[in-house]
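Each letter names a residue; structure tokens follow underneath. Both lines appear below:
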Amino acid sequence: MWFLSETQLLGLLTYGGDPRAVGPSTDWSPTMPLARVQKLEAQMATLLQHVWPWMQNAIEESATRVGQQMEQMMDQLASLQANLDALLTPPETEPESTPTTPVDDMVLDTLIRDEMTPPTSSHHTGKLPHYGRTSNDIEAGRAHKRERQELEVA
């Protein structure tokens, strides 16, 4: 037995039940037999029976996993809140600074003595410091330069 679409059924009723009289404009494609439809429905029901327990198990496992993840995140959040509270609360007692004793001064004096020279920079290597020059040295250098230039000209 064949199933008919609404258009085909209407055409049959209009033309007196003769499928050849429906005309070429009507879609007259064969449809699936009832036995085949019933067989497919039975196969789908069997497949659903096999898949259903697996789906339920997967859903339960997923729900359990999500629940555990939520518990872990809530624990981490509580720990973070406790740490934040500890950081934001002012200390109950102010720490007292220890007074400096003469021993500390003696240690510092021993470590930093006048014998230590400051490290020289590679930038200043080979240059003379300006503070070592006096105005007499500068004048003597200029006089020597003038004499040398006069000798070269002569």
